[in-house]
Amino acid sequence: MAISRRGLLAGTGVVGAGIAFSGAVEHLFRGDGAAPPTGRYGPLVPDPNDLLDLPRGFRYTVLSREGERMFSGEGPVPSHCDGMSAFPRKGGGAWLVRNHENRLDASHRVPALPGITYDPGGLGGCAALELDEAGRIRTERVAIAGTAVNCAGGHTPWRTWLTCEETEDRAGTGSYTKDHGFIFEVDPYRQDRTVPEPLTAMGRFQHEAIAVDPRDGVVYETEDAFDKPFGLFYRFLPKKPMGGFDSLRAGGQLEALRVPDVPDLSMIQETGTVFERVEWVKVLDPRADQTPVRFQDFGPGGITHAQKLEGCYWGGDRVYFVSSYARRDEGSRADHFGQVWSYEPHDRRLTLVIVFGPDTHIQAPGDSPDNICLAPQGGLMVCEDGGGAQYVFGVTRQRDVYPMARNRQNIGTEDDPAWGEFAGVTFSPDAQTMFVNVYTPGTTFAITGPWSHH
């Protein structure tokens, strides 16, 4: 395996919230379509309703809010809105599938409905929202229930949503009657097609997000572990690749990333650092029946860990994934305020694309990248998760960083973060609307404006 530096750039963008990005980003920010690149949209305008600050010319609609009655009449909108994706709807509009990261103390559980409930003792799950071509809600219903701590996930090429449990709790913990820590597949279009059975071969651990290679169906998975031993970056090789809905139930092989001589990704600090021909090591006990996966023996050479592996997204010919932060005083080899990595399967090449710079004034440690997505117009959207004011940031192809949205409803402080993080950023199929969640009070926003005018 060779290590090199490729395309190390000096360009750095700094915004008022004290985050700096730098890196070799020409591949990351090419976008998914032919629209002009996303540019700077100017300063954020204070919202008189104290919900969401946006640049001039942009506007938001509140689609759904925790505690309000769901359109289906199935109960109140559940708590803790997290990961989300948008799917095309026949005749225009979109279907949104939204995670609810409910633990056992959630104020509003996902209703445990017959036929789509895994464990009646689990309070988490997903909701599905149908939006017409004008962006109005037609339906809002439970998509899956009885799961736990549904954090993020990702969409598949066959238009389903893989929802991920960020927990390793066993049956008997609190009200749980079954083990948790799995991935479940959700059909956004048909409630009766969602089978509340875990995809056990894909592993039982503190899942965060997934991304699927549309060429061969390989699923990449992140593990959000903030304490040692930290999480791993995985790939799942399905026995029945690209087989459509239910194909992942046929099983497959789970493997973990090993970068020789790099036990902790936080050790790498220079953007543009490249590792050629990295290795994948088979996970011997994916269900963690005896030992949690990240504690297992991976043989000579060990395995490569990283603190707080979060967002994961496929773009072009590679997968991007986030390490939200690393702290020496919590066991990491080095400190950082966030990294974005890319992995190119064809060459087994791992590249450190972006490093989030240290705070210069108001940012507290942990105000870090979480959920990410590639904007159809080109560029990256990054959800911030931490104390103090919370933003959705954009990064252009020119490596300029700009604030896209600011949460005004619960700014919080370092001592009382108020869980005002953003999550679930995604774009509509027609690229004209950005959807994003505020974690609590759980709120789903639709943001429209002059996306293609810059």
What does this structure look like?
The protein is built from no helices and 30 strands. With 454 residues, the protein is mostly beta strands. The chain has a single domain, classed as 6 Propeller (Neuraminidase). InterPro entries: PhoX (IPR008557), TAT_signal (IPR006311). This is PhoX family protein. Pfam families: PhoX.
Q: Overall 3D geometry?
A: globular
Helix content: under 10%
Number of strands: 30
Q: Output the number of helix runs.
A: 0
Distance between the termini: 41 Å
For the report, how would you describe the main beta sheet? 8 strands, antiparallel
Q: Remind me, CATH topology?
A: Neuraminidase
CATH superfamily: TolB, C-terminal domain
Strand content: 35-45%
Q: What is the second-level CATH architecture? A: 6 Propeller
Low-confidence stretches: 2-20, 33-38, 359-366
Number of structural domains: 1
Round the Cα radius of gyration to an integer and report it.
20 Å
Q: What average pLDDT do the residues reach?
A: 87
CATH class: Mainly Beta
SSE class: mainly beta
Taken in chain order, the helices and strands follow as EEEEEEEEEEEEEEEEEEEEEEEEEEEEEE
What is the element layout, followed by pairings?
Blueprint: E1 3-5, E2 12-14, E3 20-22, E4 44-45, E5 52-55, E6 59-65, E7 81-88, E8 94-100, E9 124-131, E10 137-147, E11 150-155, E12 161-165, E13 183-186, E14 207-212, E15 219-223, E16 233-238, E17 252-258, E18 273-275, E19 279-282, E20 309-315, E21 318-323, E22 339-344, E23 349-356, E24 368-374, E25 380-385, E26 391-395, E27 401-407, E28 422-427, E29 433-438, E30 443-448
